[in-house]
Amino acid sequence: MPARNLNQLSACEIAHGVAAGAFTAEAVTRACLERIEERDKHIKAWAFLDPQLALAQARAIDAKVSKGPLAGVSVGIKDIIATHDMPTDMGSPIYRNNRTAADASSVALARGADAVILGKTVTCEFAGLTPNVTRNPHDLDRTPGGSSSGSAAAVADGMVALAYGTQTGGSVLRPASFCGVVGYKPTYNLICRDGIKFAAESRDTIGLFARSVEDVDLIASVLTGRPRVAQRETPPKIGLCRTHLWDHARPEAQHAIENAVERLEPAGAVVRDVSLPESFSALAEARTIVNPFERARSMAHEWNANRPLISEGLSRQIEEGLTIPYARYIASLQRMQNCRAQIPAIFGDADILLTPCVTGEAPKGLTSTGDTRFQEFWTALHVPAITLPTHKGPNGLPIGIQLIGRLYEDETLLAAALWVSQVLAAC
Hints:
Elements: H1 11-20, H2 25-43, E1 46-49, H3 51-62, E2 74-78, H4 105-112, E3 116-121, H5 149-156, E4 162-167, H6 173-179, E5 182-185, E6 205-210, H7 213-224, E7 237-240, H8 251-264, E8 270-273, H9 283-298, H10 300-305, H11 312-323, H12 326-341, H13 343-347, E9 352-356, H14 373-379, E10 385-392, E11 398-404, H15 410-426
Parallel strand pairs: 2-3, 2-4, 7-8, 7-9
Antiparallel strand pairs: 1-3, 4-6, 5-6, 5-10, 9-11, 10-11
C-alpha cells in the first residue's frame, strides 16, 4: 500500500498499482469518494455523483483478469460531455436531469480502457462565462476559473486523478492555472468531440486536467490511439513569446515567465525571443465576431424554446451573434487562418513557445471566471497548449506558465513540457 492516500496518487501510479494487484480499483474509488464527502460541501466541484454507480464500475474492473491502460483511474467529466448513465445538465436548468442514450466518444474510450467515470463536474452555463457554484480549493473566496471550473477544482483537491474540460477561449488552461494543476488543450479536434455541446464549433476543443504531465500523456494516448511520449534526450529549444499582451500581465505572471527562463537556460535549454506579427493583435477582435456568431447558432433550439431560462449574459451574446453579418464572420475566420499559416515561420527552429498563461493569481470573488485573453489568443490558432503549475503569486496562489506547440506536434509539446516540469521542480 502506498504511503500516500490512494486518492492522492497519480493516474499512472493508480493504473500500475491496480494492474499489478497492489490495491484495487474499488479502494481507489472509495478514497476519492471519501475525499469528496469531506471537501465538496465547501468546493462544490460536482454536478452529479452516484457513489454506488462509481463503486460498481470499480468492482467490474477488479473482476477482470486483463486490465486496460487506465485501470481504476478515476475521471471526472465536464457536464457538457455526454454520459449514458449520468445526467448531462450543461450548467443550465433547461437540461436538468437530461439523459443521453450514449456516451461521448471521449468517455466511451476511457471506459474501454477501464477508467472509473466518477461523476460529472460543474461547468459554467453551456461552457460560457456565467459563473457557477464552484470555488477555488486554495481560497474559497476566489474563482477557480471557468468554464471547466469543477474539473480543475476536483483534480487540484485530490478528489479525482483526471478530469475532462473543454476550451473555446481559455476554459481549460485558465482554471488549471488558477487551481494549480496541469491543463492540456490539444491541437484543435485531435480528441474526438462527438457528444459535447458546442459553444463555438470552430474553436471548441476537449482538454484534460491532471496533476502531472505524465498523467496527461497517459489519458491523451488512450483518447487518440498514439504511443506514449518518450523522454527527451536533449533540452528543448524555446521561443520566449511575450506577445502584444505582455503589459496586461500582472507582475507575478511576468515574473513566472522570466524566472522560468532564468532556471531553464542553466539546465541547457536554448531560449530566444520570438515576436509576433502586428496582424496577430487582431485575433482578439476576430474572436468577438466568431464566438457570438457560432454560439447563436449552436443554441438556436434553446433560444427558441427556453429563452427565459438563459442567463442575461449569455442572452446578450446570442442576441449579438444573431446580428453579426455573415460576411464579417467569414472575414474573421479567414483572419484567423492567415495567422495560423504564419505559425511555422514564427517558431523557426524552436520546439515550443513559452508565454504567459494568465494575467495573475485567481481573482477574488465569484462573479467572474477571470481574464481569458492569454489563453484565447492561442486557442484561435488551433495549436496545442499546456499550462504547468510552476510558480506562486504574492498571496501564495498558483501561477501557471504556458507552453505552445506547433499544429499537430502535440508529442513534441508534451515531451518538452515533461522536461520543463522536471527542471523547474528540481531547482
